Amino acid sequence: MKLAAPSDNAHSGAAAAAPAPAAQSRFVSLDFLRGCAVMGILAMNIVAFAMPEIAYINPAAYGAGDGGNITAWLFGFLFFDGKMRGLFSLLFGASMMIVIMQMTERGEDPTKRHYARMFWLAIFGLLHFFLIWWGDILFSYAAAGSVAYLFHHLSSRSLIKWGLILYAAAFLTISLASGAMLYTQYRAYQPGASATEIRDYRVLIEDTGYGQAAIDRDLAVHRGSYAGILDDKLTEKLFDPLLGIIGVLLETLPFMLIGMAMAQNGFITGQAKPQTYRRFAIWGFGGGLILTALCAAVNIRTAFDPVTVMVIEMNAAMPARLLMTVGYAALLILFIRRFSLACISQHISAAGRVAFTNYIGTSVCMTAIFYGYGFGLYGQVSRPWLYGFVLCAWAVMLLWSKPWLAHFHYGPLEWLWRSLARGRLQPLRRVA
């Protein structure tokens, strides 16, 4: 399958210069996709907000092993895990490319502006990580975006090719680590396994966060004070943002390159033919869902064996995540092209326009709800009930975003980021 061919007028709206932000063209599909992505990310991140980190990928590691817990995990694994992050990465690359194209067509050099944006995004990410929540992606996105810019001069076909090459290289690289983990487990389970082989396996389990000592420590930290949580990050997790860049470059950078291509050829801005989107929706989303279901079946069949879960999460599910991410984009674009005037579509699009503020805002709210310095619910709410908090947060996103944008050009953090990157305060309030 090929992505949509470039259109003669694919960038006419994006390239139009205007004196005021209100006059600038926007791609409705891009805003709508971003709104769906920021809402979907919370649906998966809620477990990481409310439970020890290992519970994010393994429902048997923490919490009851009943049917409700497994069903909630299965729903998240099938439809959200990795797919929303992938969609957000596509959109990050697409938005970045649109800004580059806008500036280039106006005869401006986008390099300085781009790296200023990435610098301040990295600062926001570090503040988010250390002061609010350990699951930050902004710092890693800034790093990946800085590398992705080096590819911006390529055609959409070349960007897709490089994205797929890098994704395949990442898959093969991670496969080596997965193979080593499986081999360590295999040796430990053999009759007559040596004490060294058994010890190596136990160390592997402890290092992946499955040990009871690691879980107890996690609970103690996050049920404690704000000062204790901050101290843990400054002492035990000081270099985690830098280490996270490695994983992001392996998976997120390819998604960004593909998103840049989709901005060039008009796919992600809703300018491809309907049959193109239908084809990607069927083969991408449908095929990816089947592969994801097979991975889920293996996890359940092995009773969520720690090594098996880890291998599937970081390696085996990669092809399915890529297919479903592109399939999601196609499905959502088909929806917004047909129902762009629907009330819910407009509210989701508005949430997407202030996605940065919504993303940070959910971190502030959820940590206040679950951490010890707030309501102290950390580790005490079962997985199915966590979706109640997600629905409430979605309602808040949808209710505040559109009214805010009726009076202001940007969300609060979008405005701050834009002002810092441009070195001067940007107009915020709309003029009647």
Automatic annotation (TrEMBL):
Give the transmembrane region(s): 32-54, 60-80, 87-104, 119-152, 164-183, 242-268, 280-304, 316-336, 356-378, 384-400
What are the boundaries of the signal sequence?
Answer: none
> Where do the DUF418 domain residues begin and end?
263-423
The record, for InterPro entries, names: Bact_Transport_Assoc (IPR052529), DUF418 (IPR007349)
UniProt KW keywords: Membrane, Transmembrane, Transmembrane helix
Q: Does the keyword Plastid apply?
A: no
PANTHER family the UniProt entry points to: INNER MEMBRANE PROTEIN
The name on file for this protein is DUF418 domain-containing protein
- What species is this protein from? Sphingorhabdus arenilitoris
